[in-house]
Amino acid sequence: MRPAPTKDPNVVVLAFHMKGCGACEEYLPRLRKIARTPRPELGGLAYSDYIPIYEIDANQREDLSNKYLIQYTPTTIILRRPTGMIRRDSALTDAEIEHLLGVALRGS
User: Fold this and answer.
1) Domain residue spans in the chain?
2) Could you read off the pLDDT tens digit of each residue along the chain, which spans 108 residues?
3) Which stretches of the chain are assigned E, i.e. beta strand?
4) With the CA atoms of 55, 85, 89 and 13 taken in that order, what torsion angle do they form, in degrees rounded to the nearest 10?
């Protein structure tokens, strides 16, 4: 039996959205699906097994929306210590989501 993966304490993905946002309603299910799909290069595990991914309603969490200067949704942010932040202020394609999660996991 393989040991359970450990979530990296130095990386987190924040997916900001709003209710009634058509692009958000289309984007979030794809993000979830890609994040939870087992990947051969990860030994059959998924990105979400290693990376915490938080879906944040920008209207309900105005504190975080203000902190990260959210003006548009969906907005996806990767926070990685100590190297900083990657931000995308639009719905991403499946390929862009996969690339972004790969960068979050690898750090480059």
Assistant:
1) 11-106
2) 455 666 777 899 999 999 999 999 999 999 999 999 999 989 999 999 999 999 999 999 999 999 999 999 999 999 988 878 999 999 999 999 999 999 888 875
3) 11-17, 53-57, 75-80, 84-88
4) -20
Output the pTM of the full model: 0.89
Residues 14, 20, 23: CA angle, nearest 5 degrees? 60
Superfamily of domain 11-106: Glutaredoxin (3.40.30.10)
CB 13 within 8 A of CB 53: yes
Name residue 57's amino acid. D
